[in-house]
Structures are given as C-alpha cells and as structure tokens.
Amino acid sequence: MYRYDEFDREFVRQRVAQFRDQVARRLAGELTEDEFKPLRLMNGVYLQLHAYMLRIAVPYGTLNSRQMRKLAHIARTYDRGTGHFTTRQNLQFNWPKLADIPDILGELASVEMHAIQTSGNCIRNVTADHFAGATAEEVADPRPYAEIIRQWSSLHPEFSFLPRKFKVAVTAASRDRAAIRVHDIGLELKRLATGSLGFAVFVGGGQGRTPIIAKCIRDELPEADLLSYLEAVLRIYNLHGRRDNKFKARIKILVHEIGAAAFSAQVEEEWQRIRDSALRLPEHEIGRIRAYFAPPPFEHRPSKASLRPPERNFERWVTRNTHTHKEPGYAIVTISLKPIGGVPGDASAEQMEAIADLAQQYSFDEVRVSHEQNLVLPHVRIEDLRRVHARLQAVGLGEANAGLVTDIIACPGLDYCALANARSIPIAQRISARLAARQDAIGDLKIKISGCINACGHHHVGHIGILGVEKRGEEHYQLLLGGSGAEDAALATIAGPGFGPDGIVDAVAKVVDTYLLLRASANETFLAAYGRLGPAPFKEALYAR
Amino acid sequence: MNKAPTVCVLTANRLRDGTVVFLDFEGAWSETLLEAVAARSPDEVRALRDRGTYDAIRNIVVEPYLIEVHETANGLLPIRYRERVRAAGPSVLDDVPGYSHPDPGATHDAHAKAA
C-alpha cells in the first residue's frame, strides 16, 4: 500500500500543529465559533447531536494492521471504545472531546492517517472497489489511480471551495462494488480499444434529495489524461455550479440542467486546452505509484484446499463471506460488521485489534473498508479460512450474512447525526432480528436505511430502501423498492404512504413475504423478481385492507 | 379555544467536550434535562435566549437554542422526537434477540443517563 513520503509527512505534521493552535485559541476564547467552525470542518470535526464527531479518512478503504491498531487505541483512549465504519469507507468516532482532538490527529499522523478533506466543499476521500487488487474480475488494481487522484486533490488550491462537496469513486471491474454511478465522478478502469488501460468517465450521479444516475460523458479516456480530464470537469463545475442554493449546488444538478452533452462539450473544450500541460501523467509516475500497490508475495497453493471436516456455520460463512481471489489457493474474506441485531458498521477496540492481528497473520497486513460498512481481508489462504473464521467468531464477527437481508447499510441517523430526522440504527437492528432466521432462504437482498433526505444510508439504491422523515415532530418512514447501486444502477421508487417506527419493520417483512411467495424459483433474487413483477403485488401486500 | 402556552428550555453543547447541556435553575449548565429551567412567558423565553447568546460569546457553550417541552408528571418532555433523543442519548437497542453489544464492558450513554 502507499507509504507517505517526506512531503506527505511534513504536510500532515504541519496540519496537526496548525489545528492544535486553532483549538487552543478557540478554547481560550481568541476564536469565535463562527471563525472556528470552518477550520474544524476542514479537519473532519463536526458538532453532532450529542457531541463532537471526528471523521477519519481511509483512502480508497485501505488500512494496514498498524493503522487498525491505532484506531483501536484511539477508540479506547479518547472515545467510548467503539468506532463506526461509514458508507464512504471512512471511520467516525462519535464522542471525542474537542480538547483531545489535536492529540488524536497527532496519533493518526504517526501511522500516516489524517482527517483532512473529510468535510467541506472540497474533493472528499476517494473511494474504490473494496476487492481491488484481489478480485479476478478487475482489469488492473484501481487503487494506484485513486492514490494519484488523492494526491492531486489534496489541498488543490482551485478546488478547495467548490459549490458543494465532491465525491469520486473508482472501480476496475465490470461488476460495480464501488457504486460509481451514484458519485459526482465515477471512474471505471478498463481496456480501451487500443488495448491500453484507460477509463470510462461517469459524471453527475448522486443521491440526496435529488437522486440521479451518472451519465457516461467519455467512454475512453487514456490513463495519461486522467488528471487533465478531471481538472477540466472540476473547472466547468466550479465555474457554473450554483452557489446561490445549497440544494442545487451539486454537479448532478448542473449536468441535469444543461444536459450531459452540453456539459461534456464544455469539458472537452477545456480539456483540449490543458491536456498537454503538467497534468499529463508520465508513465514512470504511474509506475512509481503502482509499485506501492504491487501484489503481495503469494505462494503457489493448491486451488482447491480442503475445507473438511464440514461444519455448518463454517460452510455457510465460506459460501456467503468469501469470494474468488485472482490467485489460486487464496480467497477474499468479508468480515461482517452486521451481527444479528447489532449496529451496522460498529467495531469495538477489541474487535479492531483482533482484525489487525488477522490481517497481519493471514492477509499480508491488509484490511479494506467497504462502502457497505463491512471490513475485508483481501488475501487469505484457503487453508487458513477455518482459523480466520474461528477467530472472528470468538470476537462476535463470524456472522455469515454478506449480501443477505441482515447485511443492512444504515447511516448513524437521529441517534448521532445533527441533520437526521429519524433513527436508522434501531430500525436496522429490529429488521435484522426479525428476518435473521430466514436470511438464507431469502438470499441476496440489500436493505439500506437513511435517517434523512441526505441519503448517507444510500436508501435510493437499496433493493429495499428506507427513508426516515419527521412528521409532526415524530419519526416516519418511507419505503422504497427496486433500487440498485451496482452496474445495473437504478433508483428505488416510493411504494406508497409511509409508516411509523413499528410499522416500517412489519412493512419490510411483508415485502419479503411477498417476494418469497411470488418468486419464480429460489434462484430468482428479490431484485429480479421485483423487475419481473413490478410494484403492484408488493403494494397490494402493504396497503390492501 | 386557548392554545396551551409554549414552555421552553435552553440547550446547547459544551464547548470543551461537546456534551449536551441544559440551563438549570441556578444558571449553570446541567447535563440532564430534569434540572432545566423552564420559560413560560415571552419575557422568560427572551431571557433564556439572551443567556444562551451571552454564554456562547463567553465560550462556555456552542450553538445554544430553545426547545419546546411538555410539562408532565415525570418532568419535562421535549415535544420533538429529535430533542427527546438528544436529551436521552442514543437509543441503540440492546434487547434485540441475538444482539451482543460490540463492547460489553462499555457503559451505554443512554443507560448511563437514564440511571
């Protein structure tokens, strides 16, 4: 993985020192809250419902064991013993004291981490396929390009005060695990017609109050032109994006209002002007960054290691939580942070330390964070799977539910977030407990829950989406059906009138019951069945008297 | 028909650690709603608002604001659900079948405050 060079180290060290001084001045009364707020946000510090919250960047979701242990240490020392992994592949601490945050940032800097650009109207943490560098489905590891974008976008002077926040996701597989079509820019690394590596560029996707699927504005972009093209896109957005209305300020609104063709034409014009500038990526520079992501020294292992003796829990876990690795004899392991009835995305300090140990011992020191709020050990020998599973079970992380109905995405919701209108976590807990016994029979089904219209829980692209709203001071939940954040990206549609906190759990159960009753076979997934049947039978089940 | 008078309390977050606080009878900032001073007239509401502005300028608290409450036999109850959660702490469930808290040793905030 990428290691800081002297520039990175000094840049982060200086930022910690700056923020330490800013916090001291704030606590001494030398800075007002109005003066301090933009400074804290630039360092990932929010004031949430109950306390300050610190959001830590995990670039393209990649961590090593040292970093994971440091996060555990911070959770135990400065928080309440738990960290929360987010749908942006980041980590949030919900209870840090403002006075402690400079020390926390200093601790993070010691393991090459920071919280810069995890807030504000800038280019946020670049996300990537959490199976990158391990899956046989990709044309190449997308993370070197994500790292190049990270370096280009960090404190970019022209793009530090955009009309609104800006999110970039990268994948290199036709199966989209990075949800690139619901990002401001989504990049698909691919083989171009020339045989060289390059990108398909999707622009103007997003969720929030105006969900839009991104448009592909360039199907073939040579890799050398990556930064010049991104710069052109950002320039056009920065120039024409609305600053008069926060709710219409994202690039998706601009692309939608002027049309993808007109937007693309402006980008092309700007790109031709700057294409051969210093932004052109030299082959040796791509190679230099790529070297940081060189495959680990895989051993030649038998492609079919024995998983005997058979044991039901282990077999279920292997079926659901492991995926094919590009290297024979290895597997990709998804560590579910969704224990039945648990808090989606939460991990205790002890669990983080156990995962760090497993990564070090069994996965070439690598852990990934997925946007589905799980963790991944990307490179595990098949013959070690039983030992890994046993250790995960011992710390409460052995649930065999990756991609199942209990593998629920939920934003922090009203339990933590100052913007939320309704709780997400307890709804997720209750749905999980309600459907757990039948989850294997139900099969692949993604439930995504947001506690407000900002859609951090990705409800617009849930197979079943839930949106919490406030109605006359009380919680109320809309039910949405038929969305997808994958390569078949689609926006879910509202099923009908909403439900109260109890009713929404029953409503989800009714939708699931209807699916089980009407599916053509056990192999027809919920999404396929919904596509075939349409919303009518589900609405009938939900609303018929 | 006379509308019941609005009753308000003043809340904010403490600057140093972000803890949710309520202005109490003695003019101090308390961590519990039970001790909050209630304003029942426009003049009392104005006085609370002024006090919030003053303590924000003095860097004791941040983002002070008034919340509407019902007066019940058990004390003050925020009208908005949001404010009830904010006053009580996270409502994360620990009685769901099969649920085990990620950190069994941790004292949950909601329970700590309720105790």
Describe the overall structure.
The complex is a heterodimer of chains A (545) and B (115). With 545 residues, chain A is of the alpha+beta class. Chain A folds into four domains: 6-109, Sulfite Reductase Hemoprotein, domain 2 (Alpha-Beta Complex); 142-291, Sulfite Reductase Hemoprotein, domain 1; 312-394, Alpha-Beta Plaits (2-Layer Sandwich), CATH 3.30.70.3340; 409-543, Sulfite Reductase Hemoprotein, domain 1. Chain A contains 17 helices and 20 strands. In chain A, a hairpin with a 2-residue loop joins strand 18 (464-471) and strand 19. In chain A, helix 5 (143-153) crosses helix 9 (283-292) and helix 6 (226-240) crosses helix 8. The mean pLDDT of chain A is 96. Chain B has helices spanning 42-57, 81-88, 109-114, and strands at residues 7-14, 20-23, 29-30, 61-72, 75-78. Chain B has one domain (7-114). Chain B is globular and about 45 Å long. Chain B has three helices and five strands; from the N terminus they run E-E-E-H-E-E-H-H. In chain B, 26% of the residues lie in helices and 26% in strands. Chain B has a five-stranded antiparallel sheet with strand order 3-2-1-4-5. The interface between A and B is large, with 49 and 34 residues.
The coarse silhouette of chain B is: globular
* Overall number of strands of chain A: 20
Unreliable spans of chain A are none
Radius of gyration of chain B: 16 Å
Our count of domains of chain A comes out at: 4
Main sheet: strands, sense, barrel of chain A: 5 strands, antiparallel
> What strand order characterises the main sheet of chain A?
1-2-5-4-13
Q: Compute the CA-based radius of gyration of chain A.
A: 23 Å
**What share of residues are in beta strands of chain A?**
15-25%
Number of domains of chain B: 1
How many helices of chain A does DSSP assign? 17
The protein's oligomeric status is heterodimer
Round the mean pLDDT of chain B to the nearest integer and report it: 83
Helicity range of chain B: 25-40%
Identify the CATH class of the largest domain in chain A.
Answer: Alpha Beta
Count of distinct strands of chain B: 5
Mean pLDDT of chain A: 96
